[in-house]
Amino acid sequence: MKRLLLPAVAIALVSQAQAQNVTVTGRVTNAAGQSQPGVTVLERGTNNGTSTDGNGRFELSVSPTATLVVSAIGSATQQIPLNGRTTLEVRLQDAATDLNEVVVTGSRATEGRSNVLTTSPVDVISAREIKVFAQTDVSQILTYIAPSFQSSRQAISDGTDHVDPASLRGLGPDQVLVLVNGKRRHSSALVNINGTVGRGSVGTDLNTIPNASIKRIEVLRDGAAAQYGSDAIAGVINIQLKDDTTGVQASSTVGQTYEGDGRLYQADANVGVGLNGRGYLDLSGQFSNRGYTNRSGVDTAPLIYLGGNSGTFPASANTEQLRRDLKAQDDALVAQRGYDRRNLRLGQSEARTYGGFLNFGYTLVPAVGLEAYVTAGASRRTGKAAGFYRLPNQITQTDATLYPNGFLPFINTTIIDQSIIVGLRARALGFDIDLSNTYGRNELAFDISNTLNASLPVGISPTNFYAGTIAFRQNTSNLNFTRRFTNVAVLSTLNVAFGPSTATITTRLRPVNEAPTKTTAA
Predict the structure, then answer these.
(1) 260 Cβ partners below 8 Å, 6+ apart?
(2) Mean pLDDT of 144-169
(3) Whole-model pTM over 0.85
(4) 3-state class (DSSP) for residue 106
(5) pLDDT for res 312
(6) What is the full DSSP assignment across 169-191?
(7) Contact 58, 50 (CB under 8 A)
C-alpha cells in the first residue's frame, strides 16, 4: 500500500494544480484597432506562452493570479495582471524605440534603418550577446552567433595557424569586406598558401580588435559589390565601436578544454569618458593567453629508427620473417630510448595577445554639426605552432648528432597590427559631409625553433632561424556627401549619396636571412 500511496499523492497534486489554472482568451489589435497576428503572449516568469492567430486571437491556460506579457516588434511591451479576468482586449501602442537595432551597413542613407526594414538580411550582434559565449576572439564569437559566418582554427599550416581564415556564405576570406565604424579595415599580411580554408587568398584578421571595444557587430548576409567593390561579394561585416560615457567596465575569462589542454586566461576593460556633453572618449584594452591543444593520435609507422622514409620497410626486408625481425629490433629501440609515438601536435596554436583601441569624437562647432573623430588601435600577438615531425630514419631531413630521436619543428610568429582613422563630419546646404583618412598596417614575422638546415654539414647547423617578415600597408581617403529628400514627386523619400575615394595600397616583403629549407616548412 505504501508503494501505491506516493504515486497517488503525486497524481492528486498534479490534478489539483491543473484544476487551479484558468483558460484565458483574448484579442490583440494594433494602435488603429486592426487585428494583430503573430503577437507573443507569455505568462510572466515562465516559459508558458503562445502567439495570436490571423485574427489576433489567442487562448492560454495560466494561473488565476498570473500576469501576461504581450509584446510585438515595433510596439511597446505590456504587462497585464489578470485579477480574476478570463477575457482580455489588448490594444498595442507604437514604440519606435522598441524596434530592432538600427543599422547603416549596406546603405548610404543619412538615417539608419531597423534591421527588419533592410532589403538584405542583416545580423546585429550586441555587446551583451558577445559576452554570452565563452569565446574571446571575434572570429570565434561570430562563428557561434552569425549563421552565415564560419571561421575555424587551422593546424600544421604555417602562418595560417596564427591568423584564422574566415568566410561568409561559403565564399573566400578575400570576398568579405570588414569595416570599423563604417570605414574599410585593412587586410592581413598573410597569404594562405597551404591546403586550408581560403587557400590563395588574403583575409582580414578580426582577432586584432578587442571584444571590450565593440558596441555591436553588423553582418550583411548578401553581396554588396556594387556599393563597396569586389571584396564585398560575400557580404559586409561592420564593427561599431563603443561611443558612450558609461564609466568603467571590466571582465575576465578563465577556462580550458574538456581534455585538459587549451588553457585560457583573458581579461579586458573599457573606460568611457564624457566630454562636457560635446563628445566622448572610449579606451579599451585586452590581454589573452591561450594554450595549445593536441588531438593527434599514435604514429602507426611500422618502423621509427630502422625503416626507410616515413617509417616504411626497406626493400631488403622482402620476406615476412625479415620484416618481423626488423620490427622487433625497432620496437626494442623505441622502448630503450623512450620514444613517444604521439609525435605530432594537431590542434590550435599557442597565442598571447595584447591589444587596445581608442574611439574619440568631439563636436567643434555645434551650429553646423562640425565633429572631429579619431579611431586608433594597436595589437601585438605572439604565437607558437608545430610543423610535421621528422622521424630519425628520415636521414635527408634530420641530423642524428643533433636530434637522435628526430624532432618536431616549431613556427613562432609575432603579429603587429596598427590602424588609425581620422575624420571630420559636418552638415552644409542640407548635405551630411564626411571627410576621412584611414591607415592600417599588419606585419607578421616568422622565427623557426627546434629545427635545422639539413643542407649544412652534419653537426654544425643552427637550431633556430629567422625566416623573414611580411608586411601590408593600406591608406584610404574618402569624401562623402549624403542627403535625404522628402516628398519628391511620387516618392516619399529619396536618398542621394556621392563622393570620391582614393586608396593607396603598399605591400612589402623583407629579405629572408636564411634560405628556406625543407626541414623548416610544415
Answers:
(1) none
(2) 87
(3) no
(4) coil
(5) 87
(6) TT--GGGEEEEETTEEPPPPS--
(7) yes
